[in-house]
Amino acid sequence: MKSRASPLAETSEQLRILGQANGIPPFGEKMRAAGLDPLRAMGITVFQINVGKLCNQTCHHCHVDAGPDRKEVMTRETAELCIRALAMTGIPNVDLTGGAPELNPNFRWLVEQAVALGRHVIDRCNLSVLLLAGQADLANFLAQNRVEVIASLPHFREAQTDAQRGNGVFAKSISALRKLNELGYGQPGSGLVLNLVHNPVGAFLPPKQQGMEAQFRRELERRHGVVFNNLYTITNMPIGRFLEFLQASGNYEGYMQRLVSAFNPVAAAGVMCRYTLSVGWDGTLYDCDFNQMLALPLGFDSPHHVGNFDAVLLYERRITTRNHCYGCTAGPGSSCAGSIT
């Protein structure tokens, strides 16, 4: 295993690489040409909380660089600040992510507090966490609190999923999906929402979401008896481990050119940072989870920490962008809820 540089050194190097790709115009130039610079928020409908980088998996495409060895974990004090900020607003959706968010000792408390405030809670689940010995009742907890599950499943074929997420992960994912189905998740009329996420296994853009959803629905039910509500296709962002893969495989500049060539002004106008606020594990505020992983906190005189939450300043804030933002604006666009257009 390679030695890990400091997180700040790693993100600084990634930002340097993103800013120096041959023939790649600065993202701001594209946005100005589209009449979208400066990019500003349009309110907040999603309060996304990244509770840390601890995870039971080490996926090749992970922009968070999460894994079992990570020590960055949100404390109870910071979790309480998140709930205090949420209670000051009418933000309808709370999106819990990680790492594996369920491994944070405050995960269930956050869910219960957000539900008590009448908010819709989303759990970004890697599925295999539901099978851990210490999480035997987790699926039941999610169902009891009507938590929407957004589950990562790179492909409906075992080989493609295991290539991205590790040997044996596909089989565990199917077992977890069946467990969720048994509780009513993905079943018509249950109100328990189960959505899947597809990331390409390689240096290319995802296929059209509608067609891929039809394939997943057909193949998962035929092969494994698994049902779900929606499939989201998400572009792999050129940051974190995926950037390392692009460089090691000689695909970095080609991938960036592909993203730039597919720049879509309509998708750019609807990027998720315009209605999402991202809270880091230490309470630092970001425009999105991707900026968080590049250590790009809110700028332009916006509050920097959830403890200083100010809705007036945040709802129409100017958004910080860099060249990785091409990943959200390519083709139909990409967001935490799949294609934008």
Outline the fold blueprint.
Blueprint (H helix, E strand, L loop, with lengths): L6 H12 L8 H7 L12 E5 L25 H12 L5 E5 L9 H10 L3 E6 L12 H7 L3 E5 L5 H8 L3 H14 L11 E5 L10 H16 L5 E4 L6 H9 L3 H10 L3 H5 L6 E4 L5 E2 L2 H5 L17 H5 L10 H4 L12
Parallel strand pairs: 1-2, 1-7, 2-3, 3-4, 4-5, 5-6
Antiparallel strand pairs: 7-8
Note the main attributes of this structure:
341 residues, 8 strands, globular
Q: What integer value in Å does the Rg equal?
A: 19 Å
Instruction: Please report the number of helical segments.
Output: 14
Helix content: 25-40%
The CATH superfamily label reads: Aldolase class I
Tell me the CATH topology. TIM Barrel
CATH architecture: Alpha-Beta Barrel
- The side-by-side strand order for the widest beta sheet comes to 6-5-4-3-2-1-7-8
- Hey, roughly how much beta strand do the residues contain? 5-15%
Compressed to H and E, one letter per element, the order equals HHEHEHEHEHHEHEHHHEEHHH
What's the β-strand tally? 8
Number of domains: 1
Structural class: alpha/beta
Largest sheet: 8 strands, mixed
What oligomeric state best describes the polypeptide chains here? single chain
Shape: globular
Ranges with pLDDT <50 over ≥5 residues? Answer: 1-6
Distance between the terminal alpha carbons, to the nearest Å?
40 Å
User: So what's the CATH class?
Assistant: Alpha Beta
* Chain-averaged pLDDT: 91
